[in-house]
Amino acid sequence: MKRLKSILVLLLAMLMIAAFAVGCGKQQAEETPEETPQAEPMKVGFIYVGSIGDAGYTFAHDQGAEFMKKELGDAVELVKAENVAENPADAERVLNQMVDQGCKVIFATSFGYMDSVIKVAAQHPDVVFLHCSGYKTAENVGTYFGQIEQPRYLSGIAAGKMTKANNIGYVAAFPIPECIRGINAFTMGALSVNPDVKVKVVWTNTWYDPAKEKDAAKSLLEAGADVIAQHQDTPGPMQAAEEAGAYGLSYNSDMSKYAPKAILTGPVWNWGPYYVKTVKAVQDGTWKSEQYWGPMSDGIVDLAPYASFMPDDVKQLIDSKKADILSGKLNIFTGPIKDQTGTVKVPEGTTMTGDEILNMNWFVQGVEGSLK
């Protein structure tokens, strides 16, 4: 009987312990909040015409993409495609691949992708497409670019002050409005400080061909140029300038490390803040199609740091003109402006409209070269 009582006491104790454990477990479960599932990152695609390592145009865009990723963190995932040719077969294939990979925003970063973007965007209305430097839009397609002609003008001042021969060479990619207005702005900047200069243009019909672009610069140097400017994606023209003991004005990014004895400064792109703003707008549902053409005051375009060997008075002059542009006091496309033949294209007191600047297809007086 005593043994039976002991067993009953033991069983009762075990039941009390079990009940206590269940109660504690229930209380702990009630006190532990449920974990909120992490949202999937938004996939953002970037299509590049060149290599990320080109030190120029594609490099600058990729720096912007990485800036955006750093700012937005785990909320975004980058998807990149390099060296995508500007033809419908390649461009449309890569655009569709990015859509299939789940990209909700796609940045096509070169002019030649425009028609492919419009076509693919029509098939995928739930994806936002941004096309750089183009002019065609749709409900889910916007365009973006910056007024790079503003720092181009300033770099022209540097060239006009530093040339001794009054012969400036300009290695340019394609005879399209984007390049033409840059050449014109550069030339007007040079002429504003040196009315005797001539700017000689050579077209390469390439964006990224280091050897060809360097050879084009060599031809200009052999013809007497002592300053070389460029609208190309590689530092090839700057390297040719340094080898010849000439000065250079680079483009896209700070290329000074590739030709440190030649490069005075150069127009640069700062795409990062635009990419952050645009992706945030898509994320929060406020994005709307637009044609963005940002001025230097937005920070999207600027000048690379000045070379240590540029005279202080030249730096101060450029800074002064930059301040005038930023304040709106100086609009570089205000007349009188003459074309190559001496015909007045923009009368005195008249300022070109945005559309006129974006579609410019004539050279200003002072440019030597054809539009072919």
Automatic annotation (TrEMBL):
Pfam families: Bmp. Residues 1-21 form the signal peptide. It comes from Formimonas warabiya. InterPro entries: ABC-Purine-Binding (IPR052910), Peripla_BP_I (IPR028082), PnrA-like (IPR003760). Keywords: Signal. The keyword Nucleotide-binding does not apply. Residues 43-323 form the ABC transporter substrate-binding protein PnrA-like domain. GO terms for cellular component: plasma membrane. This is BMP family ABC transporter substrate-binding protein. It comes from the Bacteria.
